[in-house]
Amino acid sequence: MASSSSSHDTRIPFLSDSDPGAKPLDHEAQSSLVPVHLVTEASQLPAEFLNPSPERQLIIGFDCEGVDLCCHGTLCIMQLAFPDAIFLVDAIQGGDMLMKACKPALESAYITKIIHDCKRDSEALYFQFGIKLHNIFDTQIAYSLIEEQEGRTRLPDDYISFVGLLADPRYCGISYLEKEEVRVLLRQDPNFWMYRPLSNMMIRAASDDVRFLLYIYHKMMKKLNPRSLWYLAVRSALHCRCFCINDNDFADWPSVPPIPDNLIAEGNNPEEEILSVLDVPPGKMGRVIGRRGASIVSIKESCNAEIFTGGAKGPPDKVFIIGPVKQVRKAEAMLRGRMLDMF
Q: How far is residue 139's CA from residue 162's CA, in Å, rounded to a whole number?
């Protein structure tokens, strides 16, 4: 690990051999005290992170904080959680040079980045720093897949929040009341993450968003079957691309994982999954969505596909569809039909 002084620390939970299953995490008994490093120069980061290799593959917790985090917002902090330390990468003070040094790791297949809901983080990294986030384990997607594995059906737009995931006793079983404190501050001052030096609250909040991710990852890996693992890899890759609009249909992005041979050999092959981006006539998005979302909800209920719009952050006038090819084409047809009804 890189050596750098730190006056901050936090606790990272670890999974013991006698894991209590669905019992809530005993935070003090099952955690290690680790330093939190504030990073403004690449030399303060671990060498194995800066120089990814197949011989030293890593699994790290990952998140980003910023002001209006999207293509036109400002990415302020990038959090990296290792088993023995947390690094808060200061994109404001370190600037392009620091983020450029992190680019190989964020795009590497040799470093698994565990994150909860990657879409906006990926968008910000792509448009602000030219980084194509790759090889992620999205805990929000993994949670839904485990629910499906265990026979529970998910309603459209019923995505688990990070606070909800932490509260689930199967994964942590802890409350995260401090998150609401930060949300209140963000509503009062959207520039909260821009201020320097970082306050103790900012350091604590940034660390809290990643320090449980490795623990949750190991819990989820015990539950995910091979079929769900493939879906997770594909959907995580497609979610990374979701809002990263470009002119070459993502040809310069890493390829989406193919269906593995072991799933083909089992029969009942999973269907290829894709991302489709539909243009909506300017000013007509409200009609596509419908009053209180009624129109788009009815389409989501009719198709086994995820449908996203940019919302207030944009991109405007586009609909993003992720799912099996046939279901995506069905959703496209229904959305186009809805657009035709406008004229």
A: 9
Confidence class for position 5, pLDDT limits 50, 70, 90: low
Say if strands 8-13 and 31-39 run parallel, antiparallel, or are unpaired: antiparallel
State the residue for tokens 């600037």: 95
C-alpha span between 309 and 307 (Å, rounded): 7
| Residues 176, 165 contacting (CB under 8 angstroms) | no
Tell me the residue range of the domain where 335 lies: 271-340
Task: Identify whether residues 229 and 276 lie together within a single domain.
Answer: no
Does some domain include residue 83? yes
pLDDT for residue 199: 95
Res 21 pLDDT > 90: no
Per-residue pLDDT tens digits for 60-91? 999 999 999 999 899 999 999 999 999 999 99
Whether pTM exceeds 0.70: yes
Place of tokens 């194509």: 132
Helix (H, G, I), strand (E, B) or coil at 65: strand
Q: Give phi and psi for 140, each to the nearest 5.
A: -70, -45
